[in-house]
Design brief:
single chain, mainly alpha, 0% strand
Length: 128
């Protein structure tokens, strides 16, 4: 299974499966309990998670990309991390570029919802 397929499967599972959602809540509770005694641990864990999310590689995998004696392993992790980072940057850039248009569309939708609500209120007031 590819990283993208795995991500899609996880998102779908969370959206439709209560058991999956309960498992995630349980995992977050375990993290909370694990760092309760030393909150500074959370910053380190969060940093590792952000690196993994943004690049597709864990810090340990980046270490292998730099220091592994196995050329194939080094190449795999370096390529994977670079590709994921570029995709993340492109997706972020596209999202930022689309923000003004998205905001305008949202404003139009809000206005049309208000108009429908006002019309419904008028009808209710007239006939009820």
């Amino acid at each position: 299974m590819t990283d993208l397929t795995s991500l899609a499967s996880t998102i779908y599972g969370v959206a439709v499966d209560k058991k999956k959602r309960d498992e995630i809540v349980s995992q977050f509770r375990q993290i909370k309990e694990a760092v309760a005694d030393d909150p500074k641990q959370f910053v380190s864990i969060l940093g590792d998670v952000l690196v993994s999310c943004a690049t597709g590689n864990t810090p340990e995998e980046w270490n292998k990309a730099k220091n592994s004696s196995d050329e194939g392993e080094r190449s795999h992790f370096a390529t994977k991390g670079t590709e994921c980072t570029i995709l993340a940057l492109v997706a972020t850039g596209k999202a930022i570029n689309n923000l003004p248009e998205a905001a305008e569309q949202l404003a139009k939708k809000i206005k049309s919802v208000r108009e429908v609500k006002e019309a419904a209120d008028d009808i209710i007031e007239k006939y009820l």
